[in-house]
Amino acid sequence: MRPPYLLLDIDGVLIPFPTADGTTPATHTRHDVVPTGRSADNPVTVWLDPAHGRLLMDVIRTGLVTPVWCTSWRQDATTLIGPLLGLPPLPHIDLPRPRITTSHPDGYLWKRDHVDTWLGDAPAVWIDDDFTALDHDWATARTARGTATHLIQTDPRAGLQAEHLTQATTWAARIPAVRAG
Ligand SMILES: [Mg+2]
Known about the structure:
Elements: E1 5-8, E2 29-33, E3 44-48, H1 50-62, E4 66-69, H2 75-84, H3 112-119, E5 124-128, H4 133-144, E6 149-153, H5 162-174
Helix pairs in contact: 1-5
The chain binds magnesium ion.
């Protein structure tokens, strides 16, 4: 049996949004990275917490979840961000690049339809900072259909906390066994 997926966002989860005065948590370290399609003389500054790498490795070692990046960083999550946290190359969901001006163009998270298709009927716990009530309804309906689904929402300015990962593994350990395959 494959463990449920753990879908991981980056912005607002591993990379906190700056506060109004432009500061980031003191726990985080500055890195300059060059995302795919950008020139080397035009890097992007990101702030990452080394403790997140250790916490995520602890989660991976439990074997309770199958971690997958679910972020607009797309493959750069695997090649740029993960290594800065000491993570092995995790797969990513190849999200499209919609022309949208809000992350909720239809009242719910823009990633969700793609995630829904990608998951099929696989159970999943999804950590993101940007769910709406409609996303929580989606998770509830999916669970009611027999596909365990759990959303964990971070505060984008604080980002991922240890208890979010504890919640994810606790949930994964408790869901009913799903069919083999
Ligand atoms: Mg986000």
